[in-house]
Amino acid sequence: KSSVQTIGEEQIQNPYTELLVLKGHQDIVRFLVQIDDCRFASAGDDGIIFLWNAQTGEKLYELHGHTHKITAIAPFSSSDVTEEKTDMIISASADRTVIIWDCTSGRQVQKVSCFHSTVKCLTVLQRLNVWLSGGSDLCVWNRKLDLLCKTSHLPDAGISALVELPKNCVAATVGKELIIFRLSASNNESEGWNVLEVKRLVDHQDNISSLVSVNDLTFVTGSHIGELIVWDALDWTKQASECNFWDSSVHPDVQPEIKLSQSPHETSVQHLTSDEECVFAAVGKGIYVYNLQMKRVIACQKTAHDSTVLHIEKLPNRQLISCSEDGSVRIWELREKQQLPAEPVPTGFFNMWGFGRANKQANQAAKKMQENTPMYFLELVGDLIGHSSAVQMFLYFGELGLATCSADHLIILWKDGERESSLRSLTLFKKLAQNGDLQLRL
């Protein structure tokens, strides 16, 4: 029997009661990227990129240019003062090409085919007006797709993820290692650039599977064996770490599962997201909330889904959304527990021998700690059932709803039923008013 929480048919706190199914892809849809408040792009294993309207679900453009699956995609807005703002996206593919697309016209702007291996990640550095591609090398490019500089060939599988750091630095994950690179532009007018390796961090025991920037002071990494490390973004020192996500002592309310050993699949940190206060981690089938100030897990749902959680996001309210290989999308609310009075320590062996004072002090310390430490829990408030296969990721569009993509080749737009109903009523009212006005004129 599954230990996953269930929710009844009446999901009072779940606004997503309508859905629009968007078809077009012929294979797994792995990526969604937001272009602006109303548009997004989707990409996956069929090598095609679609641009969509998040309000209506209308397909705006179908972008053909790659011959193999898409491996990375990123928004790339022009910020040149002399030009009008242009919304663009960059895509990388297993065909070893990178393409820049114009989202307004749906046209290919530029294509590069000089890579020795597949580009696995793309990062735009707005402050420096350059972008980076990571694979067997770290390459630095300008907006015209001129190669400014690159690193020497990296070992093993190459760079799997990149994140921007202060002082013109980036952190790159290469297997178990985290490599810090610094970018520098020469002062002369030849636009000469350098990328230098400045430090290697080897604290992880297994391959790094996720990487997230919290703010200009902090970034966080997670590994396949469940390690989470909090790093200082300025001097790259380890600030805190967590390795016992699956330990029952972390969340005493959850019944411990009797297992001989934990497989890496169950403890792998699949995805990380954060706000200024906490890091939210998708670990195996569960989701965990790690408080950065307290340096500990303050809430968790060990079996949030029936299968591995692939993506997690914090909403502007106190809600989280998670999606899983089991095809489900779930909404959670982080709530504070009602505090119970501290249990008195029973008089026993130590009191008999005159250790009562120490016992009393320990009890008072425990009580004080309990009073000062709020406890939280994650409550399931919505369950979105629509996909028939693994949900890869999602985008939150505020009042426009939620977009999800899946291995079933579909994208679903989840809509606030009450809002959509009122919009339809308003449209109908306007039409009736216009018709009435027309009849009066006649």
UniProtKB/TrEMBL annotation:
Signal peptide: none annotated. It holds the Pfam family Beta-prop_WDR41. SMART domains: WD40. Keywords: Autophagy, Cytoplasm, Repeat, WD repeat. One of its GO terms (cellular component) is lysosomal membrane. The lineage of its organism: Eukaryota, Metazoa, Chordata, Craniata, Vertebrata. It is found in: Cytoplasm. WD repeats lie at residues 22-62, 63-111, 302-342. The keyword Repeat applies. InterPro entries: WD40/YVTN_repeat-like_dom_sf, WD40_PAC1, WD40_repeat_CS, WD40_repeat_dom_sf, WD40_rpt, WDR41. This is WD repeat-containing protein 41. The gene is Wdr41. Component of the C9orf72-SMCR8 complex, at least composed of C9orf72, SMCR8 and WDR41. The complex is formed of two protomers, each individually consisting of one molecule each of C9orf72, SMCR8 and WDR41. The protomers homodimerize via an interaction between C9orf72 (via C-terminus) and SMCR8 (via N-terminus). Within each protomer SMCR8 (via DENN domain) acts as a bridging protein between WDR41 (via C-terminus and N-terminus) and C9orf72 (via C-terminus). The C9orf72-SMCR8 complex associates with the ULK1/ATG1 kinase complex. One of its GO terms (biological process) is regulation of autophagy. Non-catalytic component of the C9orf72-SMCR8 complex, a complex that has guanine nucleotide exchange factor (GEF) activity and regulates autophagy. The C9orf72-SMCR8 complex promotes the exchange of GDP to GTP, converting inactive GDP-bound RAB8A and RAB39B into their active GTP-bound form, thereby promoting autophagosome maturation. As part of the C9orf72-SMCR8 complex, stimulates RAB8A and RAB11A GTPase activity in vitro, however WDR42 is shown not be an essential complex component for this function. Its main location: cytoplasm.
